[in-house]
Every structure is written in C-alpha cells, then in structure tokens.
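Predict structure. Chain length: 288.
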Amino acid sequence: MDHLRHRFEILDDHRALMRTRRIANRGVLVLSILAIALLAGCQTSALGRRQFKMMSETEMSEMGASAFTQISKQTPPSRDALANAKVTCVANAITQTLSGVDSRTGWEVRVFADDTPNAFALPGGKIGVNTGLLKVARTQGQLAAVIGHEITHVTQGHANERVSTELATNSALQILAVAANASSPGYGQLVGLLGAGVQVGVLLPFNRTQEREADLIGLDLMATAGFDPRESVTLWQNMAQAGGGQPPEFLSTHPSYGTRMHDLEARMPIALPLYEDAKARGRAPRCY
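Prediction complete.
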C-alpha cells in the first residue's frame, strides 16, 4: 500500500507540475501579446526611443489639470515674492524656447510653500515648484536643470507612457487570471511572481529610462534658454548631499546620483554648443 501511495503522490506531483507549466505557458503567451501590442502602438521620443501611448492629449491634459487642482488644495501657495519671481523667470525662459504644440501651451507656474526639495510638471502645462527646492537649487542654472527636466516629462509624453503601460500590464495579468485555472496548485505563487517580475523587470527600468531622457533633453532645454548646462551636475551634487542614502538602483524608479552626473557629463558636448549659441542670440536670463 505504501508503494502504491507513493506512486499516486508522484503522479499527483507530476499533474500539478504540468498544470503549472500550462499556466506559465499561457502567461508567456499573454505577455507576448502585450509586447506585440506595445510595439504596434509605438511612437518615437526626441532621443529616438520607441514609446507606447494609449491616451489622447486631451485626456492627459484633463488628468493633469485635475491633479494640479488637487495639489493646490492640499498645499498652500508661497507668498514669498522673491521665490515666485525666481521660479517664474526661469520657467518662462525655458518655455519660451519650446516649439510646435508645446510652444502654444499656456504654461502655468506656481510656487508652493513646502520645505520638500521637489518640483513637477503635469500634462496641460502645469508647473509646480516647492520653496524647499530653492535651498538645494541655489543658482538660476541649477533651478533651470530641475524645471527643464520636469518640462521634458510633459513634452515627451512620459505620463501618457506610464498610464498606458500600467493599463496594458494590468489588463494582461487579468487575462492571465481568466485563462488559468485559479484553483490549480501553484497558481497564486505564479501570478505573484509574474506581478513582481513585471514591476522589477518592466515598470521600474521603464521609469528609469524616462528619468534619464528627462535629464538629457532637459539639459538641452536649459542650455537653449541660455542657462549654463554645467550647473546641472552641481545640482545633483547638492541633491546627493541633501538626499542621503538611496535604494539600489535596480529597485528604484530613478537613476542613482552618480549615474545621473555621469550621463549629464557625457551629454555636455551637445549641450555646451547650444548654450554658446543661446548667448550669441542674446539669451542671457537674469533670474537670480
């Protein structure tokens, strides 16, 4: 009897293994379909990177306006006239150099009374800067590096990409749940691993790619507006001193400080001629 029981246990284990493999194969098929959909809907960024966008610009602008209204309700505006003048001057100098659709955007700039060294830009032309950032971005060039970075997120449609990718990923995992037998042994573990794999393998590095793109295109933007691009490196040195430790880069949505500074330095042969050309054209902001 023990011998037969052992054989049945082996058979059950084999069946469970085969069921798990079938689920995994279905998962691979679903994710392959997702990959094909991503490639089919690709556009191209300013750096030649392929992008996937499902949302219309109108939808993204409405989402941006709604988010900006919510932030404005939660965080009071700064009454510091000098801080407002500095931020508005830098932002305007950059937005005035934009071309195409972005040049027709009615950019709105607001300074928030918040000690957190942060800034953002939202679809629809909303720019927010916390007063705390001015303690780290100590010169107009350093502030221009931040604002140029944030504006790039908007002009390159990064929010649209993030929303589209997460929608597509969640849809694929839901399809997998329907395709697989939820009562199968190992199903929960498999879906959990797929979810973690998507987060670490797709969404996080995808966001890091966007951050790098915003750094590099933002560097070009600040230089074209007449701000010294070399100050972007100094900014990240300040950030490193103020920010303390960071999580491992492969588990972070942002590149490490060292990586950012290295990439910015490598971009200088492109940015510096833009800066020199801007000066020759008389673009010399005096915001600080």
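Summary: The first strand starts at residue 42 and ends at 44.
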